[in-house]
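Quarterly update from the structural biology core.
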Amino acid sequence: MNFKSRVVSIMLAGTLCAWSAAVLAQAPAAGAGPNGATPPAAGAPATAAAPAAAPDAPAAAPTAETPPADFKTLDQEVQGMKKDVIDLNKDLFVLEEELLFPANTQVAVYVSMDVGAFFALDSVTVKIDNKQVKNYLYTAREADALLKGGVQQIYLGNLKVGKHELVAFFTGKGPVERDYRRGATVTFDKGVGAKYLELKITDKVAKHQPEFTIKDWE
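Predicted structure, tokenized:
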């Protein structure tokens, strides 16, 4: 027998041995009952059979799972990042204003109202040194916000040091719902620091007319 034949014979013998061991392991022991249980010896007291397994209890109703702690931590981190982005945008806005409108040339114009039945604001036009720099048309919501005490920055720009003239025109509805257009003028000195001007609309009760003034915040 050559080497190859001997190897095949050894493999077949090993397979037969493994198959025989498996058959013997599955065969019931001598004297075992039909289910493989060994009957009690003669004269030995019979033991009580194990009680049948109780039927499975009904599964508990599913409950909402508590989100893992990792998700909570992630949500907190996202909220923190949103706050950081908002704060960063504010800082960038302030920095942009400082770069575009440095304090030594900056001029800002604001609008405020303290009126009742004598005037309803529609628009404001602002001219500086005979040049129109702003024409703003108000919505009903914006006009209402001014009536409730709000103050609007209508213009922000740059001016060189020296004397300047500001003219503002106010358009809206006057007494008895008539179209109303009035103006106000102020001459001011622009110094080294920032300049702030306020366009004020108030009621002049004695004359039943609105009054328009420009206040120079020194």
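The first strand starts at residue 106 and ends at 114.
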